[in-house]
TrEMBL record:
Natural source organism: Streptomyces drozdowiczii
Domain of life of the source: Bacteria
InterPro entries with a match to the protein in the record: AKR, NAD(P)_OxRdtase_dom_sf, NADP_OxRdtase_dom
Name of one Pfam family that matches: Aldo_ket_red
Residue ranges the record marks as coiled coil: none
SUPFAM superfamilies in the cross-refs: NAD(P)-linked oxidoreductase
Domain NADP-dependent oxidoreductase residues, every copy: 15-315
Protein name (record): Aldo/keto reductase
Entry-linked CDD domains: AKR_AKR15A
Gene3D superfamilies linked to this entry: NADP-dependent oxidoreductase domain (3.20.20.100)
Length: 327
């Protein structure tokens, strides 16, 4: 699988990466054996970039990912985690009273997530993540969803990531968000290596083309694109499908079905085009896909490697479903 270097750093990622939120029990439980088998399937498919966060299952994703990768050569893979939410232990009586679902994750609430973009919070978060992962360094550290915390994120959290990078505790730094505007500010105003942009450069939403992607290309920064299926609609467009974690409105469902018809007329599955499209932009180093089973991992790898004729993109542009040539 092809690899790309992130910005001016020495860190490399494969063009397909493993999003580990699902093995942190996102929405429903994933058995430990299945979580480990899913990571193994990603490795067997050639994936060497794995992304996690403390938020995912209150540290469960980090613990599972660290355990699954423990027997792999450390220099053979790239791992990212995130800062901005620290995990504070709950007293036993609060844990006992929890209902087994914590902010979308099917885990007992043993800890409370607390927003913390202070320098001390960033350092503590990295130290805690290293402990859960069983590692001595993090390849990529992202500021996690600083949407409502811009001032401390830029004033305290980002400079602390720079210090951690200089110390060699982390290899590359950036921010991960579901919007492009603040990520563009990071690219223009700081020395980030990479940003993770979810859902804003897909077959249904090209809003990152107006700001983030041109800025990243101009400054030699890298973009990892997540949410390529817009949380489900581009994987299986049907009534009741989700778009950005809510039921897709009818106009977007109609557009997704139109996309599917045009793409499949070229003999290509919609999923394959959705995975490949972000990689058509030179600033995009990889796409991140969340998977919860070995079959889902293998399918993602197969779809990404499908041949896609140039005529398919031309057809989508001609029908007004994608921007014109040259983005």
């Amino acid at each position: 699988m092809r690899r790309g270097r992130l910005g001016g750093s020495a860190v490399e990622i494969t063009e397909l990466s493993f999003g580990a939120a699902a093995i942190g029990n996102l929405f429903s439980e994933v058995e430990p054996e299945r979580a480990a088998a899913t990571v193994d399937a990603a490795w067997d498919a050639g994936i060497r970039y794995f992304d996690t966060a403390p938020h995912y299952g209150l540290g469960l994703s980090e613990r599972r990912l660290g355990e699954a990768l423990r027997h792999r050569p450390r220099d053979a893979y790239t791992l990212s985690t995130k800062v901005g939410r620290v995990l504070d232990p709950l007293p036993p009586e609060e844990t006992a009273a929890s209902d087994g679902l914590s902010e979308g994750f099917a885990v007992r609430a043993t800890h409370r997530r607390r927003w913390d973009f202070s320098a001390a919070g960033v350092r503590r978060s990295i130290e805690d993540s290293l402990d859960r992962l069983g590692l001595d360094r993090i390849d990529i550290a992202y500021l996690h969803d600083p949407d409502d915390h811009a001032e401390p994120a830029f004033r305290e959290a980002y400079p602390e990531l720079e210090r951690l990078r200089a110390e060699g505790v982390v290899g590359a730094i950036g921010a991960g968000m579901n919007q492009s505007a603040m990520l563009t500010r990071f690219v223009r105003d700081t020395d980030v290596d990479v940003v993770l942009c979810a859902g804003r450069f897909t077959l249904l939403d090209q809003s990152a083309l107006t700001d983030l992607l041109p800025a990243a290309a101009a400054r030699g920064r890298s973009v990892v694109v997540g949410g390529v299926f817009n949380s489900g609609l581009l994987a299986d467009p049907r009534p009741g499908a989700t778009y950005d974690y809510a039921t897709a409105p009818l106009n977007l469902l109609d557009r997704a079905l139109h996309l599917k018809g045009v793409i499949e007329a070229h003999g290509v599955p919609l999923r394959a085009a959705a995975l490949r499209y972000p990689l058509t932009h030179p600033a995009v180093a990889g796409v991140l896909v969340g998977t919860r089973s070995p079959d889902e991992v293998r399918d993602a790898a197969v779809q990404l490697n499908r041949e896609i004729p140039d005529a398919l993109w031309d057809d989508l542009r001609d029908q007004g479903l994608l921007p014109g040539n040259g983005h």
